[in-house]
Design goal:
Strand order of the largest sheet of chain B: 2-1-3-4-8-7-9
CATH topology of chain B: Rossmann fold
Strand order of the largest sheet of chain A: 3-2-4-5-7-6-13
CATH superfamily of the largest domain in chain A: Thiamin diphosphate (ThDP)-binding fold, Pyr/PP domains
Oligomer: heterodimer
Number of helices of chain A: 12
Number of domains of chain B: 1
CATH architecture of chain B: 3-Layer(aba) Sandwich
CATH class of the largest domain in chain A: Alpha Beta
Structural class of chain A: alpha/beta
Shape of chain A: globular
CATH topology of the largest domain in chain A: Rossmann fold
Number of strands of chain A: 15
Number of helices of chain B: 11
CATH class of chain B: Alpha Beta
Helix content of chain A: 40-55%
CATH superfamily of chain B: Thiamin diphosphate (ThDP)-binding fold, Pyr/PP domains
Strand content of chain A: 15-25%
Distance between the termini of chain B: 40 Å
Helix content of chain B: 25-40%
Order of helices and strands of chain A: EHEHEHEHEHEHEHEEHEEHEEHEHEH
Distance between the termini of chain A: 49 Å
Shape of chain B: globular
Order of helices and strands of chain B: HEHEHEHHEEEHHEHEHHEH
Strand content of chain B: 15-25%
Radius of gyration of chain A: 20 Å
Chain lengths: 351, 254
């Protein structure tokens, strides 16, 4: 028996992967459907001499991550949509201060308090800013639990390498469901650079400071130009998966859990002789427009499937030259399209 | 010749952006003297607020981070939990601590975080030009209470020290002022105790300093000190509100 193989929920797999990647600080606040993450961390962190804090609010939690991060500790928080809105303050400050950290969003239906069903309604918030100010943030979107574990480990490497907050964008379905996961040993995917910027007391060195207020004339503009240089490097870290896309006449574009359901629908279509294929972005920012464009342009029709009213479809339209052939199918508010629904949609479009 | 009065090593040799007669410069100096005396400059991490003291990292000669508005206690909590042997303190004004950051200060205090908090109460929002703060006195004129603070509309000045003293997690809470040399010496003593408690792991220590803000109050520096004495102190009584230091030391075996 492989002792690294465990039947585990998405939320717990994400938490364990973080521990394996050396995360030693977690702060969070209860909100469904992500509660298994803080619950798991509450007993697991002390086992590895890490810090678990149940914060008084989402604001406090992200600011605790801010504080832990500036000591050089790998730190994370997790929440679900309404809580992620509250964390935007800290995310913007971390982007401004160039502090690494990982934020997990187990999305639920919105707007407002919404519901506790899985959803993909926070795509815009995740990929187009979220917090105030001119910043970019890597967004990773797993479609299976093993992939969630893998991306969670990678998230810490991206965060440290680029000194940036990184968002793992998942959803209530993936968070709550269970799957067999074979945890691979953590191997950094980026070179781990020495953190020579942390605040740990100015012993035998000049004092350091970490701040985001820059009021001297031109100082902030200079800082923003410097950040742009970094964002341009981050932009090269695109990840995506294609499935039977080479000869696809209809290209299904979906991410996260919908990517997985989309794949099942494509298998149904192929059995009926319909040339369907999949483009599944894994990084939502940076967005793999090149691959979307390559297969989207070749296909006769492009079907974007999301658990929302249509958000990623805008990025697909930007990538595919003829946006008139881009169609959208979405279920908002916690609704989930089944593989049969998508198969019907594919058949309808290919007629 | 032996110099009798030097700039503390914990202060950088720079000109601050504080207004003439402001209390911040004085409190910065007292903190710097205390950190020098305790010989902890090389293991101190300060947290600056949003407000007039936002630039504290330009003035203090040790590691300083600037936190989002009101969040220094959350940031300090995490730093101290990650690096328990460092000296971690927050420096916050009344807008930062008593308004937008009430949640963070109450919970950090209630968890009994082993940190030091220096709270500057000058009864208004200094940095943004003198708006009403939660600590603005009844009848006091500010840019958002131009006819004076009306308690029927705006409620009453918040006594944060009294509030925190009710929490089990707090160890030492004292309110002090800068109205004359004797009180400045008392303030330094309080700050020193609040930092010393961290060295012995005694727990959450909090010093509220009633501080003059002559420019926003529309007063000359000496008149501002008189205002603190005659108007603020009657409402915000000076003294020790809570002191479990000895009890906690015994408990810790310190």
């Amino acid at each position: 028996m492989n002792k690294n193989k465990r039947l585990i929920s998405g939320n717990e797999a994400i938490a364990e992967a973080a521990i394996m990647a050396g995360c030693r600080f977690y702060a969070g606040y209860p909100i469904t459907p992500q509660n298994q993450i803080p619950e798991y961390m509450s007993w697991r962190m002390p086992e590895v001499n890490g810090v678990f804090l149940q914060a008084e609010s989402e604001l406090a939690a992200i600011n605790m991550v801010f504080g832990a991060s500036l000591t050089g500790t790998r730190a994370m928080t997790s929440s679900s949509s309404p809580g992620i809105s509250l964390k935007q303050e800290g995310i913007s400050y971390m982007a401004g201060c160039e502090l690494p950290g990982v934020i997990v969003n187990i999305q639920r239906g919105g707007p407002g308090l919404g519901n506790i069903q899985g959803s993909q309604a926070d795509y815009f918030q995740a990929t187009k800013g979220g917090g105030h100010g001119d910043y970019r943030m890597p967004v990773l979107a797993p479609s299976t639990i093993p992939e969630a574990a893998e991306l969670m480990m990678a998230a810490f490497d991206y965060a440290d390498f680029y000194r940036t907050p990184v968002l793992l964008l998942s959803d209530g379905i993936l968070g709550q469901m269970m799957e067999a996961v074979e945890f691979k040993e953590y191997k950094p995917i980026k070179k781990l650079v020495k953190k020579d910027w942390i605040l740990d007391g100015a012993r035998n060195r000049v004092p350091r400071s970490i701040f985001s207020l820059m009021t001297a004339p031109g100082a902030l503009e200079k800082h923003n130009w410097k950040l742009l240089e970094k964002f341009s490097k981050m932009e090269k870290e695109v990840l995506s998966e294609t499935y039977l896309a080479e000869d696809a006449e209809i290209l299904v574009c979906a991410y996260g859990i919908m990517g997985r359901i989309g794949k099942a629908a494509i298998q149904m279509a192929r059995k009926e002789g319909i040339k369907a294929g999949l483009f599944r972005p894994i990084t939502l920012w940076p967005f793999d427009s090149k691959t979307a464009s390559l297969y989207g342009s070749k296909a006769k029709k492009v079907l974007v499937v999301e658990q929302n009213l249509g958000q990623m479809v805008e990025d697909i339209k930007l990538a595919v030259e003829d946006s008139k052939k881009v169609f959208f199918h979405g279920r908002p508010g916690g609704g989930v399209a089944s593989k049969e629904d998508l198969f019907e949609k594919i058949k309808e479009l290919i007629k | 010749m032996k110099p009798v009065y030097l700039k503390p090593e914990s202060l950088k040799d720079v000109v601050t952006s504080y207004c003439p007669g402001c209390g911040h410069g004085l409190v910065h100096r007292l903190i710097a003297e205390v950190i020098d005396e305790l010989k902890v400059r090389e293991k101190t991490i300060g947290i600056a607020p949003v407000g007039c003291a936002v630039y504290a990292y330009d003035y203090f000669n040790f590691d300083v981070a600037e936190a989002p508005h009101g969040r220094p206690p959350a940031v300090a909590t995490a730093i101290k939990r990650c690096l328990p042997d460092r000296i971690v303190f927050t420096y916050q004004g009344d807008g930062d601590l008593a308004s937008i950051g009430t949640n963070e200060i109450i919970h950090a205090a209630n968890r009994g975080e082993n940190i030091t908090v220096i709270f500057i109460n000058n009864a208004n929002y200094g940095m943004t030009g003198g708006q009403m703060a939660p600590t603005t006195l009844p009848g006091m004129r500010t840019t958002t209470t131009q006819k004076g603070r009306d308690s029927k509309l705006h409620g009453f000045p918040l006594r944060v020290s009294e509030l925190l003293a009710t929490l089990e997690g707090t160890v030492y809470i004292e309110r002090v002022s800068l109205i004359d040399p004797a009180n400045v010496i008392k303030t330094k003593k309080a700050i020193k105790k609040a930092f010393s408690n961290q060295l012995t792991g005694t727990g959450f220590s909090f010093v509220e300093v009633l501080s003059p803000c002559p420019v926003n109050w529309g007063l000359k520096p000496l008149e501002a000190l008189k205002f603190v004495k005659d108007q603020m102190i009657p409402y915000f009584k000076l003294g020790i509100l809570k002191d479990k230091t000895e009890e906690m030391k015994k408990e810790k075996g310190a």
